[in-house]
Amino acid sequence: MASERHVYINGELVPESQATISIFDVGLMYGVTLYESLRTFKHSWFLQSEHWRRLEQSLTYAGLQDLLDQQQFDQALAQTLEANEQFTDPEDDLWGNIQVTPGQSFPMPLMGGAAPATPTVICYTAPLPQSDYARYYRIGKHVVTSVFRSPPAQSYDQRMKNRSRFPHFLSKRDAVRTDPDAFALMLDTDGNLAEGTGANIFVVRDGVLYTPKARSILIGTSRQYVLGLCRDLGIEAVEEDLTLYDAYTADEAFWTTSSFCILPISCIDGRPIGNAYPGPLAARLLDAWSDRVGVDIIGQAERFAAS
User: Which fold has domain 133-305?
Assistant: First the structure.
């Protein structure tokens, strides 16, 4: 049995403590890194094809579609999972990340000379951060609106999932400074709700589920999965421009992302949201999600957060 997790780097598995890339990698020098984060259920990657499709679209938008194909994507995920699942309880699950950059370029990328010849492809896993979020299924998560805005599509389309996320970093720091227990909510440049720093937001009013349009947000795979659940369950779901008024006056609200799936919100900028967590609609969606994957999502998080 290996003593530490392994990282996949360009077709090779290396111990995590020995995983390195060049300091001249374009992903480091320019922030040109396209990536996907995903989790397992019962030690199988969840929505793997959907994650590949989004990464493929991100690469195409960036003009880097030749850096990675689906076979390489699937191979990296399979090899990394096989190497590392031994460190995870059979009843628990893993979080994973795969990212690709154009590779090494020296001395100055994009300043003449040949383009990088070999992309950098990295895949790694980590424990799900259940101790960070498990308790919020029952009490809800605080939210603070960030003073930093989500970059508009005029800059670059936010549907491209990339590591150039400085506004999100600043928003996280600002939220924690205001309320150490809060996630940040980012607005777009028109003042509409956009997204969190790593999650999509939903609000409920009069039994109808609302989420921001896909204009200034990353279209999360968990967001899309929830919309699919709504169609199957007969829950009305609407994508439209939403403001803080819609958030402050919501009957319930929640985040979606790959790790925790759905996480209730109990407070936005000091204004209470709902009075039971998860709220009725979020609870219904969590139950349906748990049934489909054969895992009690809240139960698993609570069990392994305490271990």
Answer: D-amino Acid Aminotransferase; Chain A, domain 2 (3.20.10)
